[in-house]
Amino acid sequence: MAIHLRFRSLTVTTADAEKTYCFDGPATVVSGPSGTGKSSLLMLLKHVVGGKAVLTPAVRDHVLSARAEVFIGEQHVVLKRAVNDARSGQVDVLDPVTLATRNTFAVQADTDLPPLSDYLLGALDFPRETIPASRDGKATTRDLKFTDLFAYVYREARNIDREVVGHLDTWFNTKRTALFKLMFALTDSIVLELSRKLGELKEELRKKTDEYENVKSFLGATDPRTEDQLRAELVSLRDMLQRADAALASLRHELEENTAADAVLRQELRAAVGSAREAAQEVLAAQDLVEARAAVVAQVELDLSRLDRSTTAIEKLSPFDFVVCPRCMQRLSTRPVPEDHCVVCLQHDPHDQDVDPAAIAQTRRSLDLQLQDAKAVLEADTHVLQNAHERAQQTDFLAQSLRRQLDAQTRDLVAPRFDAIADASARAASLRAAIDSVTQLRDSWARAHAIERDVRDIKAQRSRATAERKARTAELAARQNLVSDLGRDFNKMISQLRPAPWIQSATIDPSSYLPVVNNVTFESLQADGGGVVTSINVAYSLSLLEFGITHPDVRVPSMLIIDSPRKASGSNLDDQARGHRTYQRFQSLAEAYGSQIQLIIADNDSAPIPGTAFGKIELDYDNPLVPGVVHPGPEHTHRAEDES
What we know:
Protein name: Nuclease SbcCD subunit C
Largest sheet: 6 strands, antiparallel
CATH class of the largest domain: Alpha Beta
Family: Belongs to the SMC family. SbcC subfamily.
Organism: Streptomyces massasporeus
Structural class: alpha/beta
Number of helices: 13
Subunit structure: Heterodimer of SbcC and SbcD.
Distance between the termini: 36 Å
Radius of gyration: 42 Å
Order of helices and strands: EEEHHEEEEHEEHEHHHHHHHEEEHEHEE
CATH superfamily of the largest domain: P-loop containing nucleotide triphosphate hydrolases
CATH architecture of the largest domain: 3-Layer(aba) Sandwich
Strand order of the largest sheet: 2-1-4-5-6-7
Strand content: 5-15%
InterPro entries: P-loop_NTPase
């Protein structure tokens, strides 16, 4: 059954006055000349429920707040929202009798206050869903909000003759179709959750696949050996390392046994050799750092040189207006040159700031400072290098002195073993480095296999989710006949309103859920006249409204706000007759369903048919929408649909 939504009144408050507009009965017509505030009244209804309303200067400058008494679901409350001040981002929920504040909600969800949309959708018992979407080729989601649902309620004058529930807005169109499916239960939370999951899995699969290909490309470019070859080589290297370690241990044991008396001297020599090795490493590191610093200095000097050449070229050549090519001496005045382009190279002339002497001077100062800093750092690092050289020389000298002393004592026994130990140590170190290199490559292969397993798992999850969504969608497929039924009702509504004599058939597209007339899409009907298109659009909205009332399992809002149902219609007899039929349909719906529905219609003229079915709100230049503010007259009108 249609979800219950109804406005009972709207109170507009200014600094000096307050006025309440009542919506009595199932249908209310807001009438008055252009610029008296009909559309603004409807926009204020949208404003109080959290929508982004288009307000005229008269409303923005004078209205302090708008307050709407509303029935939403089972709740009867008053919604109050300020206009154009610091609290306009909040909506107060008031008690309808005492007007005491019950709660305050935020229009936007990114504040400390609870979001208004969640409150309104909860009151309607309408599902609060997040729908899958894509942005820049990446999976993302969008929350369905009450203001999105309100687009099915409020048909604004500015687009009623060109689009159906915002279907031309590509950003909103996804939400529009998702809301239609939810209203007709063509989808549900399970399907939407599975769709979101599939979008996430698709994005994750793309990332993992790219990562796998990158790792494989790295392995192929780094080392041609296969994983099996690396495994065999690692076994061989570890075996050689084990033998090398054993030989080194044996040499050291022999040395310890034969030179026990020289233990102290050997210990000093080992320390000296280690210090010499560290000093040599420090020298190498310092040399690398000095080279890097020198490269920075050279680059900055190059930038200064380039700046000097550029400055000189600008100073020398900018005063000249070339009339002939400086290369081939052909005249340049005979060819067309766009404005602000160089007559020689046809490129855009540089901006003034690009050749501004002050900017060039500032750049030079910046480069000079960079050069000073770079030279200072280079000098400091050079000093460090010198100190490292001195320390290396000292440690080498110490090690050589200790070695000569030890050689003198154990010339025939210790020295040869020291050389053998050094060779064995170097061999072991080389083997360990080779093992580390192979191990890193094997780790990369292991990572590739892990990513490949992840890819298989993601594909399996995607297959399961796809199957689940397909099964759930199949369960809901039987409800697709509701769209066909709606199409028949829409065709019947078209036959009653008769927008144009050439219309032979009308239905609802089963995939886009948009009107199709004479097998032609809605946007293709624009050339047939705005009045005809407006009438088709009104027929679509009325069909949805009535379908929701007559089908208990369809959750269409029970309210419809139409701004200018006769927009773009002329004053000839056919246009008048079409408007007359439209209001007859309004009247028949109001009489048939009574309090089950609510129609609020804004029009320049009052209802063209007699009867008590229509409540009236009449505005004029003496009694415009905004109370206490004198209207300047018909020559000074601001229409809400013309505002941006």
